[in-house]
Queue: 2 jobs
Job 1
Amino acid sequence: MNNEQAAPEPKWVVSSSPHLRDPESTPRIMWSVIAALTPAGVWGVYLFGWAALYVIALCVVTSVLTEAIVQKLRGRPVTVYDGSAALTGLLLAYCLPSHTVADDGTLRLLAWYVPITGSIVAIAIAKQCFGGLGHNIWNPALIGRAFVQLSFGSNVSPARWPWPVGGATDAVTRATALSTDAAGYNLGDLFFGNCPGCIGEVSAFLLLVGAAYLIAKKYVNWRLPLAYVVTLVVFATLFAWSEQPERTPWVNDFARTFAALRGGELGFGAFLPQWMIFGAKEVFAGGLILGAFYMATDMVTSPLSSKGQAVFGIGCGILTALIRFYAGYPEGVCYSILLMNTARPYVDRYTRPRVLGERKENRKAGGK
Amino acid sequence: MTKTFRGGVHPHDAKNRTCGLAIRELPPPDEAVILLSQHIGAPCAATVAKGKRVLTGQVVGQPQGFVSAPIHSSVTGKVTAVEPRPNPVTGKPVPAVIIAREGEDEWAEGANTDEQDASGLTAKEIKQKILDAGIVGLGGATFPTHVKLSPPPDMKIDTVILNAAECEPYLTCDHRLMLEKPGEVLAGFELIMRALDCTNGIVGIESNKPDAFEAMRRAAGSGAIHVEMLPVKYPQGAEHQLIKALLGREVPWHGGLPMAVGCVVQNVATAFAVYEAIRFNRPLIRRVLTVTGDGVERPGNFLTRVGTPVKTLLAEAGLKPEARKLIFGGPMMGIAQSSADTPTTKGTSGVLVLTDAAIFVSGPCIRCGRCVTACPYGLTPAMISRAVERKNIAVAEEWNVMECKECGCCTFVCPAKRPIVHQVKFAKAEIAKRKAREKAAAAKTT
């Protein structure tokens, strides 16, 4: 083809710069988080049997259906393919137990209305009523969890938890690791998930494996969960010392211990392991790992800047410690995250990054 | 400690298409369309009318203010019209001088002389010659160079920076210029330093151009000019980021200029144009630009005349039938064009032809924070974007939308494919309209 016979000019597409995009997308992020959560869920099903799968399936299906129906009612495009509703359902299921213990001590499957109510409240009320994805103020899964806690309390947080191992459904029940009379769990049990609890919360190890993947992909900023966990351990130590001194004998004896350390009679080897075991139990028992790495780090309801996320994590840590030691209320992690979600707009406003060339004095005046 | 700046992104480089291709001078176009606004500042007034014969390098547009620069004819021929033509940057029509070429170059009197000795020139004389040659910033912003080199007497300039980063993907014109004419580029840079009465010069090059780095290092020798290598990150070539990386200084926000922190930044091609103007009395009528992208068969770095209709360049590079997007500049900040009749201007550093013209369906902002991490200016694009979406321009202003330089980092990384730069442009236009209304209202009451 010679130059005189130039091809007809194409109809050029005109759009704003930039004309390149990174391949990352919202569905990819959501489905990656679901993938990271899968090992913990598989463990829950192995431990608690088909009951766990039933709860997970009910939550996920109800969440997705609810979103599709509400979006249709709102006259909006249906976007359930992006995985955010499925993720909410999965997270809600992970906070629920697979069985409940009836008054006569027998084991029952979790009532069907619990996962369904929780999912509908999470999606229709906590998410869609506020405007859908990106507009909710509170973590929808946690709102669902709090709602079923208030509505069906004894069903979802029994004093004694079902403990079938490997799918065997003998009605053995045991107390949860967090209650004070549960000295029977060693650290290994708590870390790897050989203990009773909610479906997805028991295996700290598998949850951390998934979290490591999300941190590597930069979907989760490590500052938030680290701040959360460290703050919790510090404040738990403080509160345990004042509220439950029998759990922290080394703190009570701190003066003597410290004198012995200074005098060189006692190595750190005696003091540190006790404190670390205490701290580890606070961290690996209950819903903290799930909460710190997957719930608090939910992108929509956590701060935008790195600094803000660290502040958010510290706030969650203090509140969780307060609820655990002074309120004695189950699901302290859930409520502390919801409270910090409420404070999130303020955290965002006061932890915005410094603009290039902005003078530091400007920030002190609270300038925006 | 690696010298770099906060934020930034890593788009695919795509420079291997053209970084190995030597600069090729193209013949002057049959028709030159010389826009009378090719710089920041007041447009020029035409000094020629229809029917007039003009020579290469003859002034066809006179500046109308201090922040302005004259415009010269890039061909020898006859003026066929003086009429409005669309400006490739704003899309709005600006007056233009259309010249039909007649034969070979016949240079205007005093232009394109033999090599002159510049050692005796004073700073004032250097600046005057730069003004007369119509030199503007060739990195793309087209700020009149003689103005940049005239800071107020109380602003002492202690460092002059040569911007050799060329951070936009695809573009390699500065790279080739440094590789093929390092001595000339540095000679121009030295003239710029003399114009500013400054003895400290630094060249900042990204590490994806090691051959150019070596060439410049060798040419600079052990003189007053230091050549520094910087890590590859977009937008390292943005003024604020270059100053931050090389000197650790931050240009004050809310309209601050580099001179406020004692430095001036000039692009490699501008330095070369200064060399040509001072040594050979050549006004700015041609520049190197890169024609590239998967929409052309034979990409290259071409030395082209200002005012070449881009369809001439596309014919030279071989336009593919699958081409869908025509961009003046690079892919991050370049402007998409609606017609191949659009002429190149002094500021056109690249013509990018792409076959991928994907239109993205944007979703809701999920507050992932990637834009905040990416923004090299420390802004919070998510909040700006959310505010503009709700047409709340006041909130966008509170989140410092006026500081945005539209570099595109935020939009590049956004997983929801939100058109953040587009929203920023809209907000800025609304703010400008509001300010104009306020000004008019204030003028009425006084």
Note: Chain A touches chain B through 50 residues (CB under 8 Å).
Job 2
Amino acid sequence: MIGRFWAWLTTKCQTCSRIRLGLGIAVAVLSFSGILMAAGAAGLAWTNTEKFCATSCHEMTDNVYKEFKGTIHDKNRSGVRAICSNCHVPHEPLPMLKRKLEATFEIWAKLTGRIDTREKFEARRYELATHVWKRMKQTDSLECRNCHHDDAMDPEKQSEKARARHLKMKTQGMTCIDCHFGIAHHEPDGPGPQELKF
Amino acid sequence: MMRWTLSLLAGFWLAAPAMAADDAAAEALMKKSGCFKCHSVSAKKDGPSYKSVAEKYKGKADAEQKLYTHLTTSPKVKVDGKEEMHETLKT
């Protein structure tokens, strides 16, 4: 295929030297790849914005985004916020791409209207929450730890209870989501991350 | 005010018929008081879930009084075998 294309190109462009032709093609391919990569990166960045999550579909706007508003991750004394992507999309490139790829299958759910009403969403709330819990248990709450660094926590500045709980996490192989669930969204009805075996 | 709030909480916990606005007020107070740090509605945390509390007190005449005392007097509770003071409601 490439050989036939090369033969066609050299007959069409008989005045060009082979080196110049090769260089021209290389530049064209590189430019096209660069544009594709830039567009892809811009697209990924756009899907990580709060505006995208909040306004792209009514399933998010009317359910999970509405619940997020006013929570500690939305509004707090210091003004440092964690938006949807901070908790639901890994920051590292490869895990992020894997998550984005998984998320494309959610488009199918959108197209088939699996949670297009409040009732349908409520009926699936527990299932949806367990997907997130499962992922966070498997990654040791990677998304939490993007901001909350274990080794940067000063036990002296924590309450006695928090100190005890965090020590328990370290010594008993627990992770953030085992206790810190239902923070930005309503808690679903059913067994929590500590009780589920993933 | 405290009594009224606790009645709301009792309603929230004991699954008594309550208006959605009351549920929201009770939940907001519980969030403000940090209740959800140790308790969950139905899942396991360090403290018992509210569903299990509701089951424990269901049909008992002194339920409201007991909850009132529990939430206003900082009693000692056991967590992982160690005693610690239960927080009071931040009304």
Note: The longest helix of chain A spans residues 18-47.
